[in-house]
Write a structure and sequence with these properties.
Two copies of one chain form a homodimer. The first copy, chain A, has 261 residues and is an alpha/beta fold. Chain A has a single domain, classed as 3-Layer(aba) Sandwich (Rossmann fold), CATH 3.40.50. In chain A, 31% of the residues lie in helices and 13% in strands. Chain A contains eight helices and eight strands; from the N terminus they run βαβαααβαβααββαββ. In chain A, the strands form two sheets. In chain A, strands 1, 2, 3, 4, 5 and 6 form a six-stranded parallel sheet that branches. In chain A, α1 links the parallel β1 and β2. The longest helix of chain A has 16 residues. Chain A is globular, with a radius of gyration of 19 Å. The two termini of chain A are 29 Å apart. At the A-B interface, α5, α7 and β8 of A face α5, α7 and β8 of B.
């Protein structure tokens, strides 16, 4: 496979960088082609703003969605954004690796999505009507590709469990896994979490490296999270509500959108 | 009260900017002092990196938490970060206003938290031991202050309802409301949502302006979300799990952390 790793950590000597190198080595040993977008090292521009749309009339009000559609379809997106879009189109699988900062991804990676996910490329794709609300949530430009988060956290695994004060990790990551990756069509693999990162010694690093290698070996075969697709009957459109009776007993909120059968 | 509005939208002619002006006018009419941090207009540096810590030895590995603690306690944080910390300390209430991009806040605001929330200022506060895991989740530097999100979304309100494919809005915002605002001690008011923003006409804008004015008038008195506090017996420490039997029937996940009595 072609594998893209989008990496968001500022320090080349960090645990995150060491784990990234473990992943790259394993993927290459298994015969995959690997590209890495190292956002800090690239000096990635984190913020979407008027400079992203050089053809936008300076007198025109900036609406990011409309401007990104104009630049995408007009071929005037900036070179850095086009390069990342090309990597996404090239990839069969995309790994997003980052430290969990304030229960989400770092700003530099959030801005990667805001800039690379142009309207027409990652949203606003396909027919939009009262009966079909676009090719999204399981369909779209990324359909057939896999995505997976690799996330480090300082806290203990217990701190992200079902009854933990931080909230369950899979719920904390739902806006990313479902809302940002499944949305443009990715099949999303369960996130790989590395907890208790502070002061990790060499013995624990070897354990974590082995766990990550195992996930990389199974990148092409692990079952994705069984998110429901939007346009195959489970949802009322245009209200976008899950039809009554489809859920497992007791499921509410985010859990409604994962098939249990 | 002293009210800080942290505003994250790139366009001065936007709906968001118009709503911000409505909020500022109402708050001032009600006798409050108001400051606005307009992140795009300020050219806010979105990304936390080595430049944030000018006293860090260039040969030293960058660990953001440790570096921010060193700079905070050593008084060497950059002037832009110090200025935002001073505004937080000045404020009795803080409003964060932004468009919902990929089900979270814009990168420029995420980076505001990453840079302004230094270790020692917004986390790592108070005694950390096996029986008391710091002053957080209801205690900390922001204790006694109020916070509130004002969020615009292109989608319909139905699209963020209990059974909606995007997920319930309050769950999508939990990593911000609970994990980023309640964490350093804020009392968090229910978020104010403005939906269906695309192509809003003047009549609908007046309706939305009136709704926002009402929220501003009640900023000092609205009841906050009843998040459980960490250190008052509801949680086992250090595992940070909610004790059995405290929840309302059927509550799971994020809902466990809101008192229903």
């Amino acid at each position: 496979m072609n594998v893209l790793i989008v990496f968001a950590h500022p320090e080349p000597q960090s645990l995150n960088a060491a784990l990234r190198d473990v992943a790259v080595a394993q993927l290459r040993a298994d015969g995959h082609e690997v590209q890495v977008s190292d956002l800090y090292a690239q000096g990635w521009k984190a913020v979407v703003d008027r400079d992203d749309f050089p053809k936008l009339d300076p007198r025109e009000r900036l609406t990011v969605a409309a401007a990104s559609a104009g630049a995408y379809f007009g071929g005037t997106l900036t070179a850095d954004v086009k390069a990342e879009q090309d990597k996404l189109l090239w990839a069969d699988a995309v790994i997003f690796q980052f430290p969990l900062w304030w229960f989400s991804m770092p700003a530099i990676l959030k801005g990667w999505f805001e800039r690379v996910y142009a309207l027409g490329f990652a949203y606003g794709v396909g027919e939009h009507s009262e009966t079909r609300w676009g090719d999204r949530y399981g369909e779209g430009t990324m359909a057939g590709k896999r995505a997976m988060l690799v996330v480090t956290a300082g806290g203990w695994p217990e701190h992200y469990g079902p009854r933990a004060i931080n909230g369950p990790i899979d719920d904390l990551l739902f806006p990313i896994n479902h809302g940002t990756l499944h949305y443009p069509g990715f099949d999303v693999l369960p996130a790989h979490l590395v907890y208790s990162t502070t002061g990790m010694d060499a013995a624990r690093f070897e354990v974590e490296a082995a766990r990550l290698r195992a996930r990389m070996r199974n990148l092409a075969t692990d079952a994705p999270i069984a998110y429901r697709k939007q346009n195959f009957g489970d949802y009322r459109i245009p209200e976008m509500q899950l039809r009554e009776g489809l859920e497992a007993p007791g499921d509410v909120g985010f859990a409604l959108h994962i098939r249990k059968d």
